[in-house]
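Tokens in:
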């Protein structure tokens, strides 16, 4: 299945367009159509299986944006649509215009905000699939992230609030608690984290560039978590336990519309 996204603006050089540290978002019909046509051309395909609206544009009525996506489905350029980092209210509005197949939002033992903002409740009520991105907490839950020295100079995590100063030390203590549970179960903390996202009924999409980690991630499918395991993980990493914002201030402004 081929999935991609639209919603952010880019410069002529292909870089993310920014203004005062905030990425520029557009759900304008013309911009959405241009982005889809560009993706089809670059991907050398006639249609996209699943197209996500990457971020919600507060300046464009969501009904207009989703109406455009619905027209692209009718045209055969897109098969299914989804939204990413949308509020519960926006998900409902979107689903009323055209059925939503998937909602993609950050969700992990490290970031459980969707349990408190009605997003998870809403997708379950409406029968929409939930795709958990960053199920390893941007690498934290691998158990191998100890400091910034291992990151490339251009790695965005160097600017992520959760990787800075005291936030980093506090979050590593959280990871230590999860690692203890994983060790007792005889699995890696990354595998435990992925198994947890599946146990709560979501589809995780961990990213990796190495075959070794890909194989480890896939093996997490075989892990069964008992109620005692789930209780222990809830105690080790309750909702709101991560320290620091998920993104820089500018990126945070693009979330939850």
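Residues out:
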């Amino acid at each position: 299945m081929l999935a991609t996204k639209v919603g952010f603006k880019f410069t002529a050089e292909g870089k993310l367009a920014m203004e005062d540290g905030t990425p520029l978002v557009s759900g304008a019909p013309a911009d959405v159509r241009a982005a889809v046509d560009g993706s089809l051309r670059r991907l050398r395909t006639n249609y996209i299986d699943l197209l996500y609206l990457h971020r919600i544009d507060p300046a464009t009525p969501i009904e207009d944006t989703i109406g455009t996506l619905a027209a692209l489905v009718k045209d055969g350029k897109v098969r299914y649509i989804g939204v990413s980092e949308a509020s519960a209210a926006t998900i409902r509005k979107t689903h009323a215009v055209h059925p939503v197949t998937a909602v993609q939002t950050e969700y992990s033992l490290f970031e459980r905000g969707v349990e408190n903002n009605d997003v998870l409740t809403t997708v379950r009520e409406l029968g929409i699939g939930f795709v958990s991105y960053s199920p390893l907490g941007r690498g934290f839950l691998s158990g191998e992230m100890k400091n910034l020295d291992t990151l490339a100079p251009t790695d965005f995590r160097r600017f992520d609030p959760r990787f800075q100063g005291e936030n980093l030390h506090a979050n590593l203590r959280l990871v230590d608690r999860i690692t203890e549970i994983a060790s007792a179960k005889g699995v890696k903390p990354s595998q435990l984290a992925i198994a947890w996202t599946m146990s709560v009924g979501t589809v995780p999409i961990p990213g990796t560039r190495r075959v070794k980690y890909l194989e480890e991630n896939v093996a997490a499918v075989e892990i069964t978590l008992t109620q005692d395991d789930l209780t222990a993980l809830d105690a080790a990493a309750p909702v709101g336990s991560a320290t620091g914002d998920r993104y820089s201030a500018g990126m945070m402004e693009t979330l939850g519309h």
